[in-house]
Amino acid sequence: MSRASALGFVALLATLPAWGQDTVVVEEEVSLRSPRTGGIQFRMGGYKPLIDEEPGLSGTPYKDYFGDESLLTFEVELQRYFYQGVGTAGVGFSAGYGEKYGSAKLASGVAAAERTALRLIPLSFNAFYKFDYAAFEWGIPLVPYGKLGLIYTPWWITKGTGTETADGGRGSGGRWGWGATGGVAFLLDVLEPRFARDFDSDMGVNHSYVFAEYTYADVDNFGGPGLNLSNRRWMFGLALDY
Fold this sequence. Notes:
Layout: H1 3-31, E1 38-47, H2 61-66, E2 71-85, E3 87-105, E4 111-120, E5 123-130, H3 133-138, E6 142-159, E7 171-187, H4 193-203, E8 207-218, E9 231-241
Antiparallel strand pairs: 1-2, 1-9, 2-3, 3-4, 3-5, 4-6, 5-6, 6-7, 7-8, 8-9
């Protein structure tokens, strides 16, 4: 081997450690993605209780007092993931608040100067599954999902300032029921991948989504007498995996 060839071979060997270091850096960057253990949802939508559809009820008290409009409702749901493979499954607990104001009525049926308020706190515990495998493995950003759960909804009605009146202008209670939800989420990571990686490394948020969902809920003490808080509603919101 000539002197020039020997020097060239030595120079080639000198570059090999640099290549190895580059490979290690890439592997470390990939491993920096934080583990995914749960999620949180923030959602908003209308809630129109089916009070007027209660069997044996005379008249339409909800429509008479509150018109034909829904309560504006906000909800937050915390989720825990127990399976991550071909999709993600787990359990979630949600709590919300909704209210609607209307005109109080005198005994004669004439509208009074006071205002009547209906307030609800929907609570639910559910099991869910979302098919996010296609989003993570195939790059399809749409994630369909479903939920099935138990619901409990405390409620109260007030007149005027909300204090109890002599004529019984306040009532309260709680109703049990069940609900099924179907929805679809859009994975926002595809719009700004670099921001999504920074969000994960800085805040521990693996993925973010916007979503729309439809809920069918029977909240009438499983067919028992009393206030019917069943509803059929759309909700929209933001979801985060962490």
